[in-house]
Specification:
106 residues; 2 domains; mainly alpha; two-stranded antiparallel ribbon
């Protein structure tokens, strides 16, 4: 695969003679965001290595999800979880109190 194709696939950006990784530039703090890749001629191995790095994969996922996740849905799910936990706690408390009341009655 040609270097241009790899650059297009990895969503990287060329500025003058320095190569920066766009997802890592947005979300990370690596060598690819501070000084970039200076020697573009022999960079195919470095690009392959960077594309396989955990931080690049995480930043690429963050970029692909950016703007697509609806925060209200996540908040609703969180609210439902908190409500369910509260209901379980209330049921346990009611059971304990009814047991205590029954013991006092008899």
């Amino acid at each position: 695969m040609s270097l241009r194709k790899r650059l297009a696939d990895s969503k990287c950006k060329v500025a003058k003679t320095v190569l920066f990784c766009f997802p890592c530039l947005l979300f990370g703090d690596t060598a690819w965001t501070q000084q970039g890749l200076v020697h573009v001629k022999h960079s195919s191995n470095k690009i392959k290595k960077h594309e396989c790095s955990v931080s690049h994969v995480e930043h690429s996922i963050k970029l692909s999800v950016l703007g697509k996740v609806n925060i209200t849905c996540q908040l609703d799910e969180g609210h439902c979880i908190v409500t369910q936990r509260h209901k379980v706690l209330v049921n346990k408390t009611r059971h304990s109190l009814s047991w205590i009341v029954d013991c006092v009655k008899f």
